[in-house]
Write a structure and sequence with these properties.
The structure holds two protein chains of two kinds. Chain A is mainly α. Helices cover about 80% and strands about 0% of the residues of chain A. Chain A is built from eight helices and no strands. Classes of the chains: A mainly alpha, B mainly alpha.
């Protein structure tokens, strides 16, 4: 077998890899969208007045957060069919990623809500605003900027975890690389290209998130002063 | 087949896998802590080359996926004449990946030590090495341990990935049993429970204990 990086081979498989990259981006986007919504439900469970629901919610979040995404994927993919629920690998993957990162996002939301000063609530109470109105017009507009960096971080995080989907047969970038590598008995180029594509996409994204974070910190500092 | 019958038949296999998982966890923990310390300090160096190396390392390993790095170490390095055993490859990939995240935590911790401490150490004519070793490092532990604890739980979860490069750990065994018996709910459910127990009842209490210990040490040192 020829040693070293073969540029002609890399060039040959480039179109295939780029198509698969599109799938990875779609998977990350859909998974993120689900996670954003799931996070809201966990947040709701956390903030309801019922102590029992709070407790159950916390245990579920802790369980999902402290077990590996990989086994959760297997669990959803292999166990649901036993109960007669047949879902495609794509749907299973999206559900699992949505649930897993939803727990993380609920923490981001919680932190953001707690970042809004208590006096804001008291002022709204004094002005006789309803709870819904207080959330909609006073609290959420202030909480949202605080949540943005955390939300951005998890978007990048989900993107970097999409290769796990290949283990249940979702045809994303890493899956394509493994397939191409197996077909040609060469793993050097496909896997290296996957790494480079990830770098190209996630490093600028992470830098952008860090910039947002700095801006939010500055803005918050100004509020405090 | 009842769940107890399942446990009686496959429990030992799963426990053996758990032992491997714990081994992977401990080895990669040691590796990542060492790497974090070195690169965290390098990141703060005034020498542009040293700082550049650390920045490139950190950005590279945080920018790509752990699974890709793992497969690269295991399947691609042999192309360059470096063949690692699956276990070693797994530990190296985990250590390098988490070392990059840890280095950022160490960097933040060092920056959070008050400037007066540096100045005081300087005024007392401590050598740069002694300044870091005796004054700064002991003080960063209470600052970095809480985020490092989160990272270590993430590490425990990430050890599951080494199953994909044929390390026979808990995940690997669960997958294996699943492919023989098709009792998916039992074997993956048990695996999830074992990971949960390891995280909640062993790893997290241990890390909390370390946090308390570190805080106490500094408190005693200051008094």
């Amino acid at each position: 077998m020829e040693m070293g990086f073969r540029w002609d081979f890399a060039y040959e498989i480039l179109p295939q890899m780029l198509w698969a990259t599109l799938n990875t981006i779609i998977a990350a986007g859909v998974g993120y969208a689900i996670a954003l919504v799931v996070g809201l439900f966990f947040l709701l469970g956390q903030r309801t007045p019922s102590k029992i629901i709070n407790g159950i919610n916390r245990e579920i979040v802790e369980f999902i957060r402290s077990t590996p995404l990989l086994i959760q994927l297997f669990f959803v993919y292999f166990v649901l069919p036993q109960f007669g629920i047949k879902l495609s690998a794509w749907v299973c993957g999206m559900i699992t990623i949505g649930l897993h990162f939803g727990t993380y996002l609920s923490e981001v939301y919680r932190g953001a809500l707690e970042g809004v000063s208590k006096t804001q609530w008291e002022a709204c109470r004094a002005l006789n605003f309803s709870t819904v109105y207080t959330y909609r017009r006073i609290v959420l507009p202030q909480a949202f900027p605080i949540a943005i960096p955390g939300m951005g971080n998890y978007l990048v995080g989900i993107f970097k975890d999409t290769p796990l989907l290949s283990t249940i047969g979702v045809a994303e970038l890493f899956h394509a690389a493994t397939a191409v590598g197996g077909y040609n008995y060469r793993y050097l180029e496909p896997y290296t290209m996957v790494g480079i594509i990830f770098l190209i996409l996630s490093v600028p994204a992470a830098m952008w998130v860090r910039k947002l974070e700095r801006r939010v910190n500055v803005a918050q500092g100004k509020i405090k002063q | 087949m009842s769940y107890f019958a399942f446990l009686a038949e496959h429990g030992t296999t799963l426990l053996l896998g758990t032992v491997t998982t714990i081994k992977v966890l401990i080895c990669s923990m040691i590796l990542y802590v060492i790497i974090s310390m070195i690169f965290g300090l390098m990141r703060l160096s005034k020498n542009i080359i040293i700082q550049g190396i650390a920045t490139v390392y950190i950005e590279f390993f945080r920018g790509t996926s752990l699974l890709v790095q793992l497969f690269w170490v295991y399947y691609v390095l042999p192309f360059f004449g470096i063949s690692l055993e699956a276990f070693v490859a797994g530990v190296v990939a985990l250590g390098l990946n988490f070392g990059a995240y840890g280095a950022e935590i160490v960097r933040g911790g060092i920056l959070a030590v008050p400037k007066g401490q540096w100045e005081a150490a300087h005024a007392l004519n401590f050598s740069p090495a002694k300044r870091i070793k005796r004054i700064i490092i002991p003080q960063i532990f209470p600052i970095i341990l809480p985020p490092a604890a989160n990272l270590t739980v993430e590490l425990l979860k990430a050890t599951a990935l080494v199953a994909l490069v044929t390390v026979v750990d808990l995940t690997f065994e669960a997958k294996q049993i699943n492919s023989i018996t098709w009792l998916s709910a039992q074997c993956f459910g048990t695996a999830l429970l074992i990971y949960y127990i390891m995280a909640r009842l062993a790893l997290v209490p241990f890390l909390r204990w370390l946090e308390v210990l570190a805080a106490k040490k500094v408190g005693r040192g200051n008094a």
